[in-house]
Design brief:
Elements: E1 5-7, E2 14-20, H1 24-29, H2 33-40, E3 50-54, H3 62-70, H4 75-79, H5 82-87, E4 91-96, E5 105-107, E6 113-120, H6 146-176
Antiparallel strand pairs: 1-5, 2-4, 2-6, 3-4
Amino acid sequence: MEGVIHIPTGEHGAIRLFQLDMRPEQAAFLKDPKALAQVLGIDTLDMEQVDIFAVSDLEEIGLAGYLTEGMGVPEAQIAADRARLAALEGHVMVIRSRAFGGREMRLTPAEQIRLVATYGTPGTEWTAPPIKTDSAQPYSAPKLPPRKARAEARRIGATLFAVVMGLIFLVLYLLVT
């Protein structure tokens, strides 16, 4: 199907740039979550992850600067599209992949909404060598014998009881005097 944008399950780090071919008041109307979801052909999305603005609002930073400096898109991804981004006019919409809440979706945008580009932000490098110390192993902490554990629980309970009773007596004493 032409015009369908597939959002895979668990997608993260993707930024989609759309050009809005509509009047400014129509673009402003898309800031309503239900209206935007309707023109994208989906049920819902997180509006905290959507930016709709006029390209002219970016002034000297431009759309390329907004994407690289404001959104964290690597300069290498923007380089090939720099001229095309500078030529965009009117309103644009930026949707981060978090807007879809990790769910699979199929966007069928209205004809006034055109996908310009999809960019990715670099992810965090989570690889590390495995930890090989004994303390990192599951269930490696020393276990208290049952009698010691019960004695500790009694000691904590008695202390809490004494503190609460002391506070009650203090409040009663202050009320009486």
